[in-house]
Design goal:
The structure holds 2 protein chains of 2 kinds. By secondary structure, chain A is mainly alpha-helical. Chain A has a single domain (9-343), classed as Orthogonal Bundle (ABC transporter involved in vitamin B12 uptake, BtuC). Chain A has 13 helices and no strands. Chain A has helices at 15-43, 51-59, 65-99, 111-125, 131-154, 163-186, 189-199, 207-235, 239-244, 249-271, 277-289, 293-318, 326-343. In chain A, helix 8 runs antiparallel to helix 10 (249-271). The longest helix of chain A is centred in the N-terminal third of the chain and has 35 residues, at 65-99. Chain A is globular, with a radius of gyration of 20 Å. The termini of chain A are close together. Chain B has one domain (4-360): Orthogonal Bundle (ABC transporter involved in vitamin B12 uptake, BtuC), CATH 1.10.3470. Chain B contains 15 helices and 2 strands. Chain B has helices spanning 4-7, 28-50, 58-66, 72-104, 116-135, 139-166, 173-197, 200-211, 219-238, 240-246, 250-255, 260-282, 288-300, 307-327, 336-360; strands at 15-19, 22-26. In chain B, strands 1-2 form a two-stranded antiparallel sheet. In chain B, strand 1 and strand 2 (22-26) form a beta hairpin. Classes of the chains: A mainly alpha, B mainly alpha. Chains A and B meet through helix 6, helix 7 and helix 13 of A and helix 7, helix 8 and helix 15 of B.
Chain lengths: 350, 361
């Protein structure tokens, strides 16, 4: 990985122990940021709840109005935000690592639309109404789309498509899948009514049940991602070097696709099209973590969750008495970042 | 895209056509392809005009166009404008795509990433939804009147935003495409949000429009596109020389004596106008702008997308897709944009594999 921002570890003052100390420090800071974001998400909203009441609701609820708001609305919303944020952040980092493409993101590359299309098929053709069944359709769609994207994005290592071509391919695939989705939805008004509220990308009003349904998928995806990290580190040196280091290339790729599928599929099925988290977060944490995926992935997950919660809180506050869905807020925050990224004189190389 | 070396080769049989001080190279194969395409287009349009509440034979259609038969009104006022809108919109999209791909130097670029189609979609959805909320059931006609104009304005505004953000001491094709993708993503998310604001009827209307449809298009849709093509086709043909040069790197272009940024901006403006006018008439019809130039390129055997052939290919594609959309699930008619999207997919996969193979070799 040719990242110029870092000096070789040996030359840093203090050597390896200092780096480890700094990395742990950053990890703790990110955990603290996530905690602050979660606290804001619990207390702020259309009806602000004082800190004392929040604590009361969490520790010993007595059925007051604020207790109800916190326990039945804000806690599931925050929990879902944390899960989706972690999932999307880690999925973005994994995709960027595997495709070696700084513009890789589950939303931009069509994985989200793949999940959407399969879910709409589920609603229309199989009469699916159960949220648990949505997830399976979402996962299937995410799997098909991520396998496709990986196949296109990784073929031949550096000889693969350029970031621009992959990004264009992603938009074209997204447009195609969206056309199919709208064809189905246009023939079925009821499905459209479900679909339009799902696709906007929100963590509000999804309920506690969906949090528990998504949790195992995200947990499994995170586990696979962490297992994948050392292999991905080796792969970043090139496939030949990785093979010489004793890594099983295909296995590493398969684990990577599985992790991305589980994480994206679960997040998208639960929350709809939330773009840009997976794109932005890895770029923000890479200067802190260095190229080591074992640190990059946890950082990306934590920051992804914090970012998603902050965006959700902003969405609750900007348009009173209504709310702006987190998907829209993230697009509005994320796009300037994306534009700044591509306007840089020297593009990031992975 | 081909390598610069390939385009330096002058084909046998190529002739130069001169008009005052301007001159073009004329490829006999491209001319043959254009003529074949036009014949095919006429046939497809005639086939399209047979379909409707009253099914006509091909002979009936021809008789109705020339004579005063009982079906004269139906064919001339209802079916011909629809087929013509399809042809003209397709031509405009094909031409726009050819220019975009030449400027971006990437066969996967299309006016969609210039912000035109999504800009138009967002504004039209906003108008349809807002009208619905304000005027209740009477929104149909009110919204219908304003849609083409809104789409045109929205498309141009979208393109302007993309252009402004992509400009940085000059315009780089890659940066333009990437900025376009980012801005498009924002428009898309805002569009999703707008779709949740209105009631389900308005959302349905908006969804039909943003799929791209030729249903119920009349002469009022034909005229603006025809006018735009009448002005912009000659204009872009005059720009062909600089467009050819723009395929090379920026330094080479400047060395060749082309005022690079000006030429690029003008050609881009033409592409944006064509796409915006087409979108205003029929909604965003997917993949025509992407596929038509590449089909034209392969049929004509040129090194870069030929403008006129791309336009003809676009017109043929749009009419063929409309024919499929109307006959596949007859009597239910699908929006034409859905069919072009589905047809575009296998082609897209082929294109991606090709791009990959070229990058490898």
């Amino acid at each position: 990985m040719s990242t110029t921002a870092y000096a070789p570890p040996g030359r840093l003052p203090g050597g390896v122990p200092a780096i480890r100390r700094r990395r742990v420090l950053v990890l703790l800071t990110l955990v603290a940021a996530l905690a602050v974001a979660a606290l804001l998400s619990l207390t702020l909203g259309t009806k602000p709840v004082p800190l004392g009441d929040t604590w009361h609701a969490l520790t010993g609820p007595t059925g007051t109005e604020n207790d109800l708001i916190i326990r039945s609305l804000r806690v599931p919303r925050t929990a879902l935000g944390v899960l989706a944020g972690i999932a999307l952040g880690v999925a973005g980092a994994l995709m960027q690592g595997h495709t070696r493409n700084p513009l890789a993101d589950p939303g931009l590359l069509g994985v989200t639309q793949g999940a959407a299309f399969f879910m709409v098929i589920g609603i229309v053709a199989f009469g699916v109404t159960d949220l648990y069944a949505y997830i399976w359709f979402g996962l299937a769609g995410a799997l098909v789309a991520s396998v496709g994207v990986f196949a296109l994005g990784m073929a031949g290592g550096r000889g693969g498509p350029t970031p621009v071509t992959l990004a264009l391919a992603g938009t074209a695939v997204s447009a195609f899948l969206y056309a199919l989705t709208s064809a189905v939805v246009l023939l079925d008004q009821q499905a459209m009514d479900v679909f339009r509220f799902w696709q906007v990308g929100a963590i509000a009003g999804r309920g506690t049940a969906i949090v528990w349904q998504v949790l195992p998928f995200v947990a499994a995806g995170l586990l696979l991602a962490l297992i994948n990290a050392p292999g991905l580190n080796a792969l970043s040196l090139g496939e030949d070097v990785a093979r010489a280091l004793g890594r099983h290339i295909t296995l590493t790729r398969v684990v990577g696709v599985a992790a991305v599928t589980l994480l994206t599929g679960a997040a998208v099925a639960a929350c709809g099209a939330i773009a840009f988290v997976g794109l932005i977060v890895p770029h923000l944490v890479r200067p802190l973590s260095g190229p080591d995926q074992r640190w990059l992935l946890p950082y990306a997950g934590l920051l992804g969750a914090a970012l998603l919660l902050f965006a959700d809180v902003i969405g609750r506050l900007v348009a009173p008495p209504g709310e702006l869905e987190v998907g829209v807020v993230l697009a509005l925050i994320g796009a300037p970042f994306f534009v700044a990224l591509v306007r840089r004189r020297k593009p990031v190389r992975l | 895209m081909s390598t610069p070396a390939a385009s330096g080769r002058v084909r046998a049989g190529t002739r130069a056509v001169r008009l005052a001080s301007a001159s073009w190279r004329l490829h006999p194969r491209a001319v043959a392809v254009t003529i074949t395409g036009l014949v095919l287009l006429a046939l497809l349009m005639a086939l399209n005009m047979r379909i409707g509440d009253i099914q006509l034979s091909l002979a009936d259609v021809l008789a109705a166009i020339t004579g005063e038969g009982p079906t004269h009104f139906v064919v001339m006022e209802l079916r011909l404008p629809r087929a013509l809108t399809g042809a003209l919109v397709g031509a405009a999209l094909g031409l726009s795509g050819a220019i975009t791909q030449a400027i971006a130097r990437n066969p996967l670029a299309s006016p969609d990433v210039l912000g035109v189609t999504t800009g138009a979609s967002v504004t039209v959805v906003a108008v349809l939804v807002a009208n619905g909320a304000m005027y209740g059931g009477a929104s149909g006609a009110l919204a219908g009147l304003g849609v083409p104009a809104t789409a045109l304005l929205g498309g141009l505004a979208g393109a302007l935003i993309v252009y402004a953000f992509a400009w940085r001491r000059g315009l780089d094709g890659y940066r333009l495409v990437l900025v376009g993708i980012g801005v498009t993503a924002v428009f898309t998310n805002v569009k999703y949000w707008l779709l949740t604001v209105g009631d389900v009827e308005d959302a349905g209307k908006a969804m039909t429009w943003i799929s791209g449809s030729l249903n119920g298009r009349g002469w009022e849709h034909v005229t603006p596109v025809a006018l735009a093509l009448a002005v912009l086709v000659p204009a872009t043909l005059f720009g062909t020389r600089s467009l050819g040069a723009l395929r090379f790197g920026d330094d080479t272009v400047t060395g060749l004596g082309v005022r690079m940024n000006l030429a690029r901006a003008l050609m881009l403006l033409a592409a944006v106008l064509l796409a915006a006018v087409a979108t205003a008439a029929a909604g965003p019809i997917a993949f025509v702008a992407l596929a038509a130039p590449q089909i034209a390129l392969r049929l004509a055997g040129t090194s870069h997308p030929p403008l006129l052939v791309s336009a003809v290919a676009g017109a043929v594609l749009a009419n063929a897709a409309d024919l499929v959309a109307r006959t596949l699930f007859a009597p239910v008619e699908l929006p034409v944009g859905v069919v072009t999207a589905v047809l575009g997919a296998p082609y897209l996969v082929y294109l991606l594999i090709r791009v990959r193979r070229e990058a490898r070799s």
